[in-house]
Amino acid sequence: MKGTRAARRYAGALLGLASELKKVDEVASDMRFIADSLSASDELRHFFESPIIDRFKKRDVIKAIFEKKVSTLTAHFLFLLVDKGREGLTAAIAVEFTVLLDRMMGIVNAELKAPYVLDESNKSKVQGKLEELTSKKVRISFSLDRTLVGGFLAQIGDTVYDGSVRRQLEILKIQLAGN
User: Fold this and answer.
1) What is the structure's pLDDT at 23?
2) Closest Cα partner for 140 from 111, 116, 114?
3) Whose CB has fewer CB within 10 Å in the chain, the N or C terminal residue?
């Protein structure tokens, strides 16, 4: 992604300041709102990314759209981005802010694939097991994968936990072939 290093630096600075002012939850909510707004509107995203539009016009638009919907800290941060000519990084900064916040809070994201919809009891068992394995709080997104016969696949970052029936049969085959 273009500008990721700069986006990470700005997000880190914002998170540090929000943490110092004890406004992390407020700013996190603002950043989600901004990210949702930018992803929902191509026009708004192109407006932020356009180098042709005057920064004073951008400040006016930010004031009109976001000033009453986000905290003062976040609004001033958006104005700072415009003043520095970095408003095109706003979407990337919002993503990096979430990543840094999750890291700070010890949260990892997991993608769980299963051949059927899991009930709440099974979801919490899997989540508990993944939290035990990672020693972190796990946020799980569930999806169906009809190619699995049974069990599940969980991916956290680059690590895949394969609890599928297919994998269990492969292990059993290896063990039997060894004996």
Assistant:
1) 95
2) 111
3) C
Q: What is the pLDDT of residue 60?
A: 93
Chain segment 120-136, per-residue pLDDT in tens:
898 888 889 889 988 89
The helix or strand, by DSSP H or E, that contains position 111, with its residue range, turns out to be strand 107-114
pLDDT of residue 1: 47
Query: 107-178 maps to which CATH number?
Result: 3.40.30
Q: Which regions of the chain are under pLDDT 70?
A: 1-3, 179
Where does CATH 3.40.30 sit in the chain? 107-178
Q: How many CB atoms lie within 10 A of CB 8?
A: 18
Note the pLDDT of residue 71: 93
Sheet holding 153-156, edge to edge: 137-144, 107-114, 153-156, 159-162
What residues contact 148, with CB distance under 8 A and at least 6 apart? 113, 114, 115, 164, 165, 166
* Whole-number pLDDT of residue 3: 60
Angle (CA) 174-177-178 rounded to 5° is 85
Q: Which residue's structure tokens are 């989540």?
A: 127
Where along the chain do the CATH 1.10.520.20 domains lie?
A: 4-103
